[in-house]
Each structure stands twice: as C-alpha cells, then as structure tokens.
Amino acid sequence: MELWPACIDADYVAGVRDFARREISPQADDIDRRDVYPRDILKAMAKAGYNAVALPVEDGGAGLGYGHAAAVFEEVSYASAAVGISLITIFQAQTIIRIFGNDTLKREWLPQFGQGLLSSYALTEANHGSDIRSLDTKAVRDGEGWVLTGEKSFITSGSAAEFFIILAETPVGVSTFAVPAGLDGLSSYIGTNSATFGLRNGPHVNLVLDRVRLPGHALIGVEGKGVRQAVGTLNYSRTLAGAISIGIARAAFDAALAFVGKRKAFDQRVIEFQGIQWYFAEMLAEIEAARLLVYRAAEALDSGVDQDRYASAAKLKAAKVATDVAALAVQVCGAYGVMENAPFGRFLRDAKAYEIAGGSAEILKNTLGKYLTRVLAAS
Prior knowledge:
The chain folds into 3 domains: 10-118, Butyryl-Coa Dehydrogenase, subunit A, domain 1 (Orthogonal Bundle); 120-224, Butyryl-CoA Dehydrogenase, subunit A, domain 2, CATH 2.40.110; 227-378, Butyryl-CoA Dehydrogenase, subunit A, domain 3, CATH 1.20.140.10. It is globular. 53% of the residues lie in helices and 15% in strands. The protein has helices at 10-24, 28-34, 39-48, 66-79, 81-100, 103-114, 226-262, 274-303, 307-332, 344-353, 361-378; strands at 119-122, 138-142, 145-155, 163-170, 173-180, 186-189, 205-214, 219-220, 264-265, 268-269. The strands form 3 sheets. The chain has a 4-stranded mixed beta sheet with strand order 1-4-5-8, with helices on one face. A 4-stranded antiparallel beta sheet has the order 2-3-7-6, with no helix packed on it. Strands 9-10 form a two-stranded antiparallel ribbon. By secondary structure, the chain is of the alpha+beta class.
C-alpha cells in the first residue's frame, strides 16, 4: 500500500523517487555532517532532466509544469533537504531570466541550466535582508556596459556557483544582473556567520564585487525594476520551498513510523498504543493538507491566477507542518530520536531552518494580509 501516492504523473514521480533513493539517500547524512555542496548529485540530476524540468523545450528544458517541479523538489528533499535547497537556487536564477531576461541572456544562459549550470541568487547584504529596496552594492554605467562594486552576504549555494543573479542599486533604483563566476574582481570568502544548523549545503559565502565589469545585456529586464522582479519570482521559489518542507515532513513521519512499528514496550509494539496512533493520525492529516496546498500553489504558477495567495500559504503551512512533524517524530522515538546516528536531528534542523529561509513566517503572513486587503478593496 502506497502511503504517499503521487499528486501528478505517477510514472514520472516513480522515476524521481528511484533516482533519489539510489543517488541521494546514501549521501544525505554525509552532506549534512560535512556541510558540503552536493555538486556531483546536482550534475547527475541535470543529466536526468530535473534541473530544468519547468523550462520550455526551446530553452533546453523538459517543458513540464510546476506540478512536476514540485514533485522533483518533494522527492529529492525526502532524501536530502540540502539537495533541495541547492536545486532551488538554480530554479531561482533560471526563473528570473526566463521571465524578465532579454533575448541575448535567454539564448546564452537558459540552455546551460539543463546542462547542469550551478547557480546562486545573491540578494542579501550585511545591512539588507528582507528589505532590499536600497542596497549597498552599486552598479554604474561605463560606456555600453556596467561596473558593479559592493559585497553580498550569506549567499546560499555560493560556495559552488558557476553563475550568479546579483541585485545592485543603480541611479534609478535596484536592478538585477546576470554575473558568471570567474570574472575579474569577483571573489568570495567564508565569513564568521557562514554555517547554519539546517539546510547545510556548503558554507554560505560573502561575495565581493571589486569593479566587476559586465556587458550591457547583463542587465535583466528594465533598470530600476529589480525589486519588482525579485518579488515576481518569489512565488515560484516559495512554492518549491513548500515542496521541500513536505519532503522533510514525509521523511520524518516515515522514519518515526518504521521505528514505532518495530519497537516493543510493555509487551506490545509502540504503534499499538492509542496515544501514539493519535499522534500519527494528526501528523498524517497535517502533511496531506499541506501537500495538497503545495500542489494547488503549483497549479496557480502554471495558470497565473492568485499566485501570491497560494505560494505564500503553501510555504507558511508546509514549513510549520514540517517543523511540528519533525519535533513529534523525535518525541515518539524517545532516546533513539535524539541519537546522533539517527536522522531525526537533521529532519528537525532542516525543517526549522525553512521557517526562516526563503521568506519567514512573518513575511508570508504579511503577504497574505496584503492579499486580503486587496480582496476587500475590490469587493
């Protein structure tokens, strides 16, 4: 009996599950313990067609919808959320170019994502986190090109990225740039706040831009519209972040269920105690509800209707459910739940980290509140 039937295309999901079981699960604990970027896994995923599943075929992608993308993130993150967050920075970069990039950028970079291009999305600065309306990193025109100067902080996937999306302030406002690694003046270092307790996919880096020169076409979209572009792509990353949280929740649930199904206490299996059954009943219902919301959000991405509402709600709900399920999984497994060689600590750390990363619960509630005020204003 299948506890977690596919929400879309059962054959496709079965293929992703098999890949994750073979290629990712055996390395999950090691990735977490050593805090390393899973480069080889991401390259293998590209060969399997997963890194560009939602890109159009003409851009080198699989041409599938965001339901398929959500399934990839869910199944991959069931094995390792660190791989999931590594993949999400790739999707963030390709999405902003797909939606806002000029034809030159699209021709140059979109096909490379399907070939395994590793990327990072560099918004954060030491003095600017959720509020990116003004930035310390500056971009000025130099003839037909641009020169970027500044420093980005706490950049996820930055330790292995071959390509960056960088937000910088121009004279007319914040703008977005496509920046390949290896340019003169572009360097990175590991700062004092580089490691996190969850979603450990390599140390976060500080990215230094010392008069980095870019061609004119490296500007993504219209100058001064960077904040709008970033917000416009958040719905995609938040939906897929919700799928990552579902993967974490399912993994914690399954591992705990397997333990209590075998563990005996007072002459019976632990799962036979009614109180324990109630815990699992509640967890199952919560995961199912959050999972359906994530796939509803994926439908909204494909249709373009109510994206803010469903993406924000999906990440808010899924992240909370994952944290609650992971914590309860520790509890029902007792001493085994807190052992270093058990996976529950990783599940709990990853789940909690995603209540902050990619849009905190408070920011998501603000977004949903603004959506409701718009509904009232339109009624």
